[in-house]
C-alpha cells in the first residue's frame, strides 16, 4: 500500500491487502493467489465463502442482526446452544456464548472461581497451566500464558499463575506411546498441586492437542486420563482450552474426544465461527453451572455475546461440516499431509519433528535432530521461512524460538476441505521455500 495507513496491530508492518477468498485460496488486490495453509490462525476451518454459511447469514441479516441478551433470546443462539450441547460430553448441557477465544477462556476461569466461592471453597483461586502455553490476550487469560514478553509488561496488574511443563516427549527423548511417559508428565501436575497447597488450587487448564504455543503437541499415552484422575483426587477443576483444537480440525469435534476424557469446562472459538463471525463459547458441566445460577447468576458477560448473526453463522458452519463430512476429511487428508511432511525429514536434516492430529499439524526446525537444539535465534529462520513460503503463495503460521529454549515451529493447517491434489500443491510450495 502506498497511501498512509491508520491501522495498527502488534506492529505497524504491512501485509498485502486481501481482495477475495474462496475455498482454500485467497487473492490480494494485485491478483496474487495464496493457499491459506494455516486457515488464518487455524480459524477458517471450512474454507472461505461457503455458500451455505453466507446464505444463512444473509437470511439472518434480513431478520435481525442484534438482540441484547438481557432483552431477548434469539432463535439462532438457542439452536446453536442445543447443537453444541449434543457435541460435547454428557452433562455439559449449558453453553455460554462469547465473541472470541480470550473471552471463552476468561469466562471459563471466572465460572470456575464463582463456583468455588458458591460452594464455600473461596480459598481456591490458583489456575495451574503449562509452559509453553497461550490462552489469550486479556489479563485473566494472559495470566495463564507462559511467554514473558507478553506477560511481563503487565505485572503486577495481573498475577502470573503457576506452570508445569507441557508433555514434550520428543524434547526429553521419551516415547510418545509409552504410558510411563504420560504418567511422568501428569505427575508434575500432582507435584505442583501439592507444592501450591491443594486447598488453594482452583483449576488446571491445558490444550488437549496443542496449538500455536507448542506446535500441535499430541499428549503421550495415558496423559489425558492421568490428568483427569489427579484433578478428581484434589478437587481441582479441569479446563480444556479447545479454542484451536476444537471445532473438528483434529478429526473429532473436540481434541479431547480422541481420548474420551471429559473436562469440567471447555473453551472453544476460532473454527467455531470459522472466520465468518467472531464467535466462541464456554461450556461447563451442569454441576458447576447449576449452583452458580441458583446462587444468583454468573457475574460475567460481554455485550455482543450470542448475537444472532454470529450464531446463525456458527450453526451453518456446523451444518456444513456435517454435510461435507469434513471431520472425516480432516482425519484422512491430515494423515496424508502428515506423512508427506514426515518424508521431508529425510531431505532436510534441520527438520527435527513433525507432529499433530488431523489437520492440526506442525513441523519444527532444529540445529541438531539428536539433541533437538533449536536453530540460533539470530538466524531468524522463523520469519525467513514464512516469507519464502509467502513468496511461493503459501501461507503458514509460525512460532519463533524463544531464548533458545523452544524450536521454531510452523503450523501447516489448511482448511478441512483440502483434498489430495491440494496437498500436492502445498508440498511443492513448501519444498521450494525450504530449499
Ligand atoms: N486459546 C488458544 C489455545 C489460542 O490459540 C488462542 C488464540 N491464538 C486463544 C486462546 C485466544 O483467542 P482469541 O485470539 O480469539 O482471543
Automatic annotation (TrEMBL):
UniProt xrefs under InterPro entries: Aminotrans_3, Aminotrans_3_PPA_site, PyrdxlP-dep_Trfase, PyrdxlP-dep_Trfase_major, PyrdxlP-dep_Trfase_small
List required co-factors.
Answer: pyridoxal 5'-phosphate
UniProtKB keywords: Aminotransferase, Pyridoxal phosphate, Transferase
> Per the record, a Pfam family?
Aminotran_3
Record flagged with keyword Flavoprotein: no
Q: Which GO MF terms are attached to this record?
A: transaminase activity
Instruction: Say which domain of life the source belongs to.
Output: Bacteria
- KW Ion transport (keyword) present: no
Q: Which family does it belong to?
A: Belongs to the class-III pyridoxal-phosphate-dependent aminotransferase family.
What name does this protein carry? Answer: Aspartate aminotransferase family protein
Q: Which organism is it from?
A: Ruegeria marisflavi
Amino acid at each position: 500500500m502506498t497511501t498512509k495507513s491508520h491501522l495498527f496491530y502488534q506492529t505497524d508492518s504491512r501485509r498485502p491487502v486481501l481482495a477475495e477468498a474462496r475455498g482454500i485460496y485467497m487473492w490480494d488486490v494485485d491478483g496474487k493467489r495464496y493457499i491459506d495453509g494455516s486457515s488464518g490462525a487455524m480459524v477458517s476451518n471450512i474454507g472461505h465463502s461457503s455458500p451455505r454459511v453466507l446464505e444463512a447469514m444473509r437470511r439472518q441479516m434480513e431478520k435481525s442482526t442484534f438482540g441484547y441478551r438481557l432483552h431477548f433470546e434469539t432463535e439462532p443462539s438457542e439452536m446453536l446452544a442445543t447443537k453444541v450441547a449434543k457435541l460435547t460430553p454428557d452433562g455439559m448441557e449449558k453453553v455460554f456464548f462469547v465473541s472470541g477465544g480470550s473471552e471463552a477462556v476468561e469466562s471459563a476461569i471466572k465460572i470456575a472461581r464463582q463456583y468455588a466461592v458458591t460452594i464455600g471453597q473461596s480459598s481456591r483461586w490458583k489456575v495451574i497451566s503449562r509452559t509453553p502455553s497461550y490462552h489469550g490476550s486479556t489479563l485473566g487469560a494472559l495470566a495463564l500464558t507462559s511467554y514473558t514478553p507478553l506477560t511481563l509488561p503487565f505485572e503486577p496488574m495481573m498475577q502470573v499463575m503457576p506452570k508445569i511443563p507441557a508433555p514434550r516427549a520428543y524434547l526429553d527423548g521419551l516415547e510418545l506411546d509409552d504410558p510411563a511417559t504420560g504418567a511422568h508428565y501428569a505427575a508434575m501436575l500432582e507435584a505442583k498441586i501439592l507444592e501450591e497447597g491443594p486447598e488453594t488450587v482452583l483449576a488446571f487448564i491445558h490444550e488437549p492437542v496443542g496449538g500455536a504455543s507448542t506446535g500441535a503437541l499430541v499428549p503421550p499415552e495415558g496423559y489425558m486420563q492421568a490428568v483427569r484422575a489427579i484433578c478428581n483426587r484434589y478437587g481441582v477443576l479441569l479446563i480444556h482450552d479447545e479454542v484451536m483444537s476444537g471445532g473438528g480440525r483434529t478429526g473429532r469435534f473436540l481434541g479431547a474426544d480422541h481420548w474420551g476424557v471429559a473436562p469440567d469446562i471447555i473453551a472453544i472459538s476460532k473454527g467455531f465461527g470459522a472466520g465468518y463471525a467472531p464467535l466462541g463459547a464456554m461450556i461447563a458441566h451442569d454441576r458447576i453451572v447449576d449452583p452458580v445460577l441458583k446462587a444468583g447468576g454468573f457475574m460475567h458477560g460481554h455485550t455482543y455475546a450470542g448475537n444472532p448473526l454470529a450464531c446463525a453463522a456458527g450453526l451453518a458452519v456446523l451444518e456444513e461440516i456435517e454435510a461435507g463430512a469434513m471431520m472425516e476429511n480432516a482425519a484422512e487428508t491430515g494423515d496424508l499431509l502428515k506423512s508427506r511432511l514426515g518424508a521431508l525429514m529425510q531431505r532436510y536434516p534441520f527438520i527435527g519433528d513433525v507432529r499433530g492430529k488431523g489437520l492440526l499439524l506442525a513441523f519444527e526446525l532444529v540445529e541438531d535432530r539428536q539433541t533437538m537444539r533449536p536453530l540460533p535465534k539470530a538466524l531468524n529462520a522463523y520469519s525467513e521461512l514464512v516469507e519464502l513460503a509467502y513468496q511461493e503463495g503459501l501461507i503458514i503460521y509460525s512460532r519463533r524460538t524463544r531464548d533458545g529454549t523452544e524450536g521454531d515451529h510452523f503450523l501447516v493447517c489448511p482448511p478441512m476441505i483440502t483434498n489430495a491434489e491440494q496437498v500436492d500443491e502445498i508440498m511443492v510450495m513448501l519444498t521450494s521455500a525450504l530449499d
